[in-house]
Amino acid sequence: MIDTHCHLYDDKLYPKLDEIILNAKKANVEKMICIGDNLNTSLKSLAIAEKYNNIYATIGIHPHESKDASEKYLSKIERYSNHQKVVAIGEIGLDYYYNFSDSKIQKVVFLEQLKLAKKLNLPSVIHCRDAYEDLLEIIIESEHDKGVIHCFSGDLEFANKIINLGYYISFTGMITFVKELEDVIKNISLNHILIETDSPYLAPVPYRGKINEPAYVEKVAEKIAEIKNLSAKEVIDITTNNANVLFKKIVT
Description:
With about 250 residues, the chain is an alpha/beta fold. The protein has nine helices and eight strands. Helix 1 links the parallel strand 1 and strand 2.
């Protein structure tokens, strides 16, 4: 399995990182992608990726952090992204639920990073909360056609629109306790799905309320298998292949 989205630099995980990576290995998690959400955590992600062979990194500025983007942030992202272990631009996107950054700033920073991802021929890792229509418009404007909507929480209509633009959809442990997402999983092809933990957040049942970690991504695969009436092995095989196709630098 590949945990395509985790935050291993988080204070809840980093102090016991060796143990967490060992737990992941025991759970047959072959690779992990550590996701940056500002320039500082992006560099932390890269440092972790340099230390561990089976961990990769992304570089990007989360919508919450977009108001604090420095004047030369794009050139820094571009420079860091040349590293062989940086597999995507992210976590980028829009979040109108919290609005920690003004929506106008969010949209500018999101579009700029999408255009950079297109220029660099890298996929994007996208966060979306309560901003579905604006997000679609910006993706279309950017003409960037490869990425993933992480921690998917939208409806089937939005899922189909995103898939039609060439994007994957990634599910977290949320699917083990949010019934509404089952309709999306039932009605889209496994060929468009990735799995992730978003650890240390969103631990799946039966670990809900505890600190999440990459080893628990298996519970996401098992729930998808249950919903789609497939074997867990089939879900794991296909979602792992999907991740390798999207994040091409993982396999080089």
